[in-house]
């Protein structure tokens, strides 16, 4: 339902304001994501822990029980998560609004990680709302 609500809002904002509306939606997603990341960082720091990837996943607000199907792997020393079923992508697709849903997917994961720790790096080379068969999130290991 969140996906369908987001897509509906994005569709109205973009149809009314064009490219400025699209930019506003992207800015809102980034702001929301960075705030989520900062809140995770505050929790981790309050526990005296490091702002590393391990603690990001341990203390993060990501709900993996929400019908999300994914497989984690280590590829070239980096954590790569391949998502094959996502309720957000499914919700967008059910209403035929992937065009609007991809605005959220394009920015949210990087923004959350940036808010948590801007020194950590995430690449998202595949995304279901852009037509790919899965989403791929690649968390890049820091070089010593």
Radius of gyration: 16 Å
Number of contiguous helices: 4
Largest sheet: 4 strands, antiparallel
The CATH architecture can be given as 2-Layer Sandwich
Number of domains: 1
- The count of strands amounts to 4
User: Roughly what percent helix?
Assistant: 40-55%
The low-pLDDT segments are none
Q: What is the CATH C level class, in words?
A: Alpha Beta
Strand content: 15-25%
Distance between the termini: 43 Å
Strand-pairing-aware structural class: alpha+beta
CATH fold category name: Muramoyl-pentapeptide Carboxypeptidase, domain 2
Q: Shape from CA axes? A: globular
Output mean pLDDT.
Answer: 92
What are the secondary-structure elements, in order, as H or E? Answer: HHEEHHEE
What do these coordinates show?
With 144 residues, the chain is an alpha+beta fold. It has helices at residues 2-46, 53-59, 87-94, 98-116, and strands at 69-75, 78-85, 121-126, 135-140. A four-stranded antiparallel β-sheet has the order 1-2-4-3. The model has no long low-confidence stretch (mean pLDDT 92).
Identify the notable features of this structure and list them briefly.
single chain; 144 residues; alpha+beta; Muramoyl-pentapeptide Carboxypeptidase, domain 2; 4-stranded antiparallel sheet; 4 helices; 55% helix; globular
